[in-house]
Description:
Layout: E1 2-3, E2 9-13, H1 18-28, E3 32-37, E4 48-51, H2 53-63, H3 66-71, E5 79-82, E6 88-92, H4 94-98, E7 101-104, H5 105-116, E8 121-124, E9 128-134, E10 137-142, E11 147-150, E12 152-155, H6 162-168, E13 175-188, E14 197-202, E15 205-211, E16 218-226, H7 237-248, H8 255-264, E17 269-276, E18 282-283, E19 286-288, H9 291-294, H10 302-319, H11 324-343, H12 348-352, H13 357-367, H14 370-383, E20 396-397
Helix pairs in contact: 1-5, 1-10, 2-10, 10-11
Amino acid sequence: MAAALNGYRVLVSGAGVAGPALAWWLAHHGAEVTVVEKARALRESGFAVDFRGPTHLGVLARMGVLDELRAVQTHGNAMCSVDEQGREIFTLPAEFTGGELEVYRRDLSRVFYEHSRGSCRYLFGDEIVELTDAPDGVRVSFAGGDTQRYDLVVGADGLHSAVRRFAFGPESRFVRHLGYHIAGWELPNDLGADRTSRQYNQPGRMASVAADLRVADTAGVMAVFRSGPASVGWHDRDAQKAFVTAALDGMGWHVPRLLAGLADADELYFDAIARVHAPHWTAGRVALLGDAAWGVTLGGMGVGTGVVGAYVLAGELAAARGAHVPALAAYEQRMRRFAGRWQRGAQPGRFLAPATRYGLALRNGMFANRVVRKMMLSGTRSLATDAGLPDYAPASIG
């Protein structure tokens, strides 16, 4: 008995989280999978990410990675809002911020990569430069000079997806800036930060710091601030540092020390807080997955939904035995319902850094209320649950 996707050639762009998850599921169903990643190695930057509810955890269990992820979980950390003197305003408990399973993005990416690399081919330091979709497959040209034909190409390459740009149109048509930027970096933990993330706000600006939960003597910083579209390049680290420094200039509390650490930081995570609005996630033999399709930079449950989407996309292809038209239609129909429940209302910038003193006081008052916290925690669990998720058994053909 041959696997349902035996001989089916798939190119996945992006080796973050959703890409390696999809690669594993496709190979599980027999496909020949190549993952191309522009970076020269797995990325080490990024914040902790969480999984909530039986749908997220069920897919991880089916992949066989749940125990391994539990071994590197952070167990979450509480988020404490403080005033300029460091006095508590409110605290959100670890189960609110960290879900039922929280891991650093770097650890999640590594586990998925290690789990899939034995059955898939990874190309680091390369990227797609041209796509030509045709009835018999997608012709792909790479920056390294190679040209190949694939039965399917999947863009799992994030908010600024190159696959989406090649196959669907320019980023400006699909990505809506939500009025904020986010930055993250590491510095020596000479502030004595513990596992509780302490955040200090001024209207339209927030800076937080907490001990790295897996690297001793290191602290992680997250900053969110209100801003129009940035004119700095996405790969110009010095310009990004200057942009972040100017945005946080004049803040009190520990912010001057955090900015001094930014100047010396080897890595910086920097992006606009934005939401993807794509009317279609599939076209011909090209599909979008994860943040490339339904992403919000921060907030919501994008990582868990991307992992669920990888399971569904591979499963529908296997169920259709490689017939991409019905498989991609079924994938999009199912994931539109699941992803849309949280994606539409996510406004992480407004939550983390309210723009006005009134908005800041209103948020602080809400989260100081235990009943409100309990209702929001219950709501996030229900949004992450899809009782109708199919069990895609490994299909085969005689």
